[in-house]
Amino acid sequence: MKNVPIERYLILYIPWVLAMLFQSVPTASYLVAWVGSFFIFFVVYTGKIKPLPTDHSIPEQIMRPIFIVQIIFVGYMACSSIFYFLNLYGYNNFQKTNEYLLIDQNQLALIAKCQRYYILGHAALATGMLVFMKYPAPSGYYIKKEKLANMVMIMALIAFPVSLFFLIVPGLSQFYFQLNSLSFIAGTLALAFAIPLQKMWNTIICLLLYCFNFYQGVISGYKEPIIISVMVLGIFLYPNYKKIVLTVFVPALLLLFVVLPKFATTFRQNAWSGETETDEATALALDAALNDNSANDETNWDFLVYRLSEISMFTIYLQSTPNTIDYYGPQLLQQSAIVLVPRVFWPGKPSTEDLVMVRVYDAGAVSRNSKVSAKPAYIVDTYLSAGTLGVFIGLFLYGAIASAISVKAEKLFGGYTLGTALIFTGLFQIFWRGLSFEFLINSVFWSYVSMLLIQKVLIATSVLKKNN
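Above: the chain's sequence. Below: its structure in token form.
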């Protein structure tokens, strides 16, 4: 990978500049910024800024940050806001419900401003990713190809009980989430290995593990684990089974987006009340999702407008900061440093949730009497810290760190398969969506420590061998 002239990166910021020029016309400014994200995708994936890695085909390196992280993170952050925009213009389920609706011009101006921050953030994110995208990463280690499938399956089987150990140890529960995610990714990757190799026992064991993880996602009451479980398996299988993935997994994902909002809502109402058993709550939720069409339509549209997109929450923070609440400066980073100390060493450590919710309550995003958790998105925290400059620096660092960790993982674990597809995806899945500073920085820091420790274990057990 040769160094890229800095002026090439300026191409990424053209949509932001154009959106700023149209800021006096909020609708035009919003649409320019929204379309701008697709422009950035285009120039990045056509290699016009920097050539994409050629050590693997695109489907075989899709788990690298420049692909999976950028697509999901930006899709959730910037592209999903179109549903809120349409809703503001009186659309419901993509149909105009009131031709004479008066548009809230103040809200329109606010979402246009949010979208300008989104497109600036996307440009900065892509810049950081491209600058630190240095593949193939030379590695001093390797693993024999014939041992790879079994090794990944064994890691899946070991990581899960170890994660349960951390769950019961006071103050170390954060490691449970890392290793549980690693077990899921390892099991899914092992299943994708076992099927084309026609290893019957590997396939059976991995399929049972995958079904167990899928069931855990179903009874969690959240939509994300179910969608991720289907999506990841499809991605891992795609290089060997392109037609099957396109004809089965893509429609399955679309169907999940249709039925899951109603399913999750109904499940929570029944299971979380404590009055209904998990299996009964699952059956009721599935029946509601598949058969209650009128309620389903309303719930799906509400999900697209207010849950898939967080732009409505962002507008609240724009109105309060810096007008009534000053920028936080380094305060959020200082709080993140406090959170890094494991609770096992500091039993009286302030609750991370409480630290984050202070700024949520102060901004009026939710009532202090509400039981709702409404943690700010990562880009919101960058804005709250330092406005426009904070968004640029924060998103550049986000992209840079994600790429740098992926490259480091490939150096430590002998290439893409173990380094990025397994370790990076398993331990650093938080990069896909991002969270508030305190949660994100804590997770990334300790996941990095876990990555180094796992490498030491694999070297000590001779799974990873040094190149001569």
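The chain has a mean pLDDT of 90.
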